[in-house]
Amino acid sequence: MRCGELAERLDERLRIDEYADVDASANGLQVGPADREVARVAVTVDAAVSTVEQAVDAQADLLIAHHGISWGGIDRVTGTAYRRLAPLMENGLALYAAHLPLDGHQTLGNAAGLADLLELTDTEPFGELGAVHVGQRGTAPDAYSVDALRNLLAGELVHGGEGVQVLEFGPTEIKDIAIVTGSGVDWLEDAAENGVDAFITGEGKQKAYHLAKEHGIHVFLAGHYATETFGVKALQDRLEEWGLKTTFIHEPTGL
């Protein structure tokens, strides 16, 4: 499959254009010629020197990353930009990025994958950002205790040894759960005002403690990287259905 054709198919499936006005990431094909033939695709969370080099070693033609290398443009190809671009261009490796579209997609996205892990039902979009959403909300068929939910997240997600931090201010039983993966704590107050029992995100900010305490809601900080592997893995499954060979490049940050 040609790189341009694959990129267009991904753009359509992930509704890339709908996020153009709210996402700093230059989503879509960031590096590489559209006429390049693609047989093997590597997927990863972060496009960095190490993951690019691993994609080259895996003989990938295209690397798909949740966090790409262009965030509002590249003014100078020096320093970090050069170190990341050089191995891509020297080895003819194309790069495709899907940031917020891969957070908020209601079947392929990071939040959707985490909701599936928790076996949530009656799921619906959550985390409004302009005209789109970046998360998901749902109901646990059987209520979780704080310890049970913490242990499930700690056992199933890769944290690099850091575990799951909990701001424990909500009810004894947890049924209504909202999720915005990665750096999603800015939607904590929305979750509280919508009456959820617990909010799950990747990493916290200082303000989260007092907001959680004042609103009476649990906050689970399950790791930025750990909560954002679901989307690229879901894309990996789709790519294999489309007849492409794939490789998942796993480099947990512990953050």
TrEMBL record:
It holds the Pfam family DUF34_NIF3. Keywords: Hydrolase, Metal-binding. It comes from the Archaea. Belongs to the GTP cyclohydrolase I type 2/NIF3 family. A divalent metal cation binds at H66, H67, D103, H224, E228. One of its GO terms (molecular function) is hydrolase activity. InterPro entries: DUF34/NIF3, DUF34/NIF3_sf. The keyword Hydrolase applies. This is GTP cyclohydrolase 1 type 2, NIF3 family. It comes from Halapricum desulfuricans. One of its GO terms (cellular component) is cytoplasm. NCBIfam families: YbgI_SA1388 (TIGR00486). The gene is nIF3. The keyword tRNA-binding does not apply.
